[in-house]
Prior knowledge:
Radius of gyration of chain A: 20 Å
CATH class of the largest domain in chain A: Mainly Alpha
Radius of gyration of chain B: 22 Å
Shape of chain A: globular
Order of helices and strands of chain B: HHHHHEEEEEEEEHHHHHHH
Oligomer: heterodimer
Strand order of the largest sheet of chain B: 1-4-5-8
Structural class of chain A: alpha+beta
Strand content of chain B: 5-15%
Distance between the termini of chain A: 45 Å
Mean pLDDT of chain B: 94
CATH architecture of the largest domain in chain B: Up-down Bundle
CATH architecture of the largest domain in chain A: Up-down Bundle
Largest sheet of chain A: 7 strands, mixed
CATH topology of the largest domain in chain A: Butyryl-CoA Dehydrogenase, subunit A, domain 3
Distance between the termini of chain B: 67 Å
Number of strands of chain A: 9
CATH superfamily of the largest domain in chain A: Butyryl-CoA Dehydrogenase, subunit A, domain 3
Structural class of chain B: alpha+beta
Strand order of the largest sheet of chain A: 5-6-2-1-3-4-7
Helix content of chain B: 40-55%
Strand content of chain A: 5-15%
Low-confidence stretches of chain A: none
Helix content of chain A: 40-55%
Largest sheet of chain B: 4 strands, mixed
Low-confidence stretches of chain B: none
CATH class of the largest domain in chain B: Mainly Alpha
CATH superfamily of the largest domain in chain B: Butyryl-CoA Dehydrogenase, subunit A, domain 3
CATH topology of the largest domain in chain B: Butyryl-CoA Dehydrogenase, subunit A, domain 3
Number of domains of chain B: 3
Amino acid sequence: MNAADDLNPEDFAEAAGAAISDAxxxxxxxxxxxxxxxxxxxxxxxxxxxxxxxxxxxxxxxxAGEKQLRFPLVEQILLARAFxxxxxxxxxMSGATxxxxxxxxxLDLGFASHATFAGQASVMLVADGDGAALVDLSSVTLTLxxxxxxxxxxGEALLDGATVTARLDAAAWSALKAEARILLTAYVIGxxxxxxxxxxTYMGTRVQFGRPLSAKQAVRHHLAQMKLLTDVSAAALRRAxxxxxxxxSRGADSAFVGAVANATFVVEKxxxxxxxxxxxxxxxxxxxxxxxxxxxxxxxxxxxxxxxxAACIDAA
Amino acid sequence: MxxxxxxxxxxxxxxxxVYRQHARDWLAANLPEHMxxxxxxxxxxxxxxxIDWEAAMxxxxxxxxxxxxxxxxxxxTLREHLAVNKEVGALMMPESVSSIxxxxxxxxxxxxxxxxxxxxxxxxxxxxxxMWCQGFSEPEAGSDLARLRTRAVQEGDSWRxxxxxxxxxxxxxxxxxxxxxxxxxxxxxxxxxxxxxxPMNTPGIRVAPIRSIDDKxxxxxxxxDNVVVPDSARLGAPDEGWSAAIRVLSIERATxxxxxxxxxxxxxTFLIRACKSDPALAGLLSGSHARSRxxxxxxxxxxxxxxxxSAVDQMVAGAPIGARGSLSKLYWSETHQSLVALALDMxxxxxPKSSPLARRAHDYFNNAYLFARAETIYAGASExxxxxxxxxxxxxxxELQA
Lengths: 316, 402
């Protein structure tokens, strides 16, 4: 029996949420997440995974964004899938090894950057020619100075003398990047959803002038727009993962471009509506803003929008 | 004009794509080129041409997809409705001249009408024999229909109606008006509302067209001066008919004109083709600014497609649609305004020596830009939709919670 016959991808959201909440209080985050199967959901059965499609990792990534998980979960899922069947793949899936991905730079260029939550990782995938190379981080000097997120900085490194422990060919690297678009889109949608939920709750309980702030039409309309854009992003991602009537698959490029723009609006507005407390470090809303902007910058969302426009122009 | 209407409709059960392919093939073979706004042979169709065209579309299975066969429909599902809408949207064809009948009057009659009313009115709407207008808004009652004043007084087996409606689209060409009245006074608020199907040639009805921002007379004031209709013109019982109509309209908001994202995409393609056709405009397309804005527009279009396809999947699965129609209404209207504003910007350099296609696009998008002002106002203004989302989807409190 195919497990997918009985399961809906959304069924994973609740379990993933519980596991992420549990992991956030533990020293060994990777072990808790691995134990809950979050790295193995979409790894083939022959490699020890659950054998489900990438669709089943989408709610996992979304919930991680919603709950502001400080761990390279999307990267770990992608690496576990890409290296499925190999020793390093098993180590990633079990959480024994933590991996990150440098979304910019290349081995042949001699540098890597925008490696998410790199401080927790021991291996890092980086582009190399048409493919990619998995670098042992103990062989390079990782710099963790990130003005966008000093607490959980993205990593960068010069790669002279880097030890490569595994490689992806061009097809596998290309596939991983396409999958990354999908999971990172889910992640930013989660970040927006979390910011919206927190803001709606706060606006409903924060009393000024004898009534909750959510009684104010200006506030209600901002929240309505935030809800609209969050739902639009989720619907676009869902559509991107479904084939059309003729069985043709659709790319996730436009879903990614839209989701980043929408999530930026939602999280920025969430901070605005919270007022002074929204600008503080104490309220962790800033983490969602950092998450969305980190992904936008790492994946070059501006260039992605231009590329999408160029594709429309070419196709017309 | 002549159309191929002697056809056997495909069985959607034979494959997911079969109905969409049917719509695509039939439109390609039958849509007159002069009705395509992105054709150099375009000219505005006459009302008779539009009526003939839409009647042919119905016979070809491209209208009334979800209406029951006994009332002239095709007895299919929202999936076929959506499939047709995708193909209708992909072509720059004219808007329906009978949208009020097909999208509002028909579904309301289906919900609250008597068997005789359904059998009489519904097939004639699809066959384009009757067009309808909507008599809801009044000078003192726009979004707040509880304030409407048009009064209906029962006199034996008939009703006497006095009052005024406004913003009534298509009133000058309509054969019928579905008219909202009240039996009491404004103090009754939502109580005592009664709907009627009123023939527009009834003595005492006067239509005064209103010139709109796009220099057309597409809507009107309609005055009812001692208009007498039989009780058989009443749609539903007092109050019951009105509350059912509100439910229907909520669903219709989610299902009407599903072609919109595909049409906005066709407009975007038209804009790009127009720029490509003109050496002075073509350079714009290689700039990062235009590429970013076009990319952002495509992302919005795909988001709107996603909203609509998700809603159809939910409804086909039997889930209540609730207030979700407000999301798609709000998003398509603002997405479209944004696209036509982009087009206006990009076509600003069109002049007497521009390419014919650029000039055609310039005319089209100037008009579209002006008309799009209406789209965030009619069928519930954007502000009303945001109120609905805040209240019914987000459930935001307005008072202190216990």
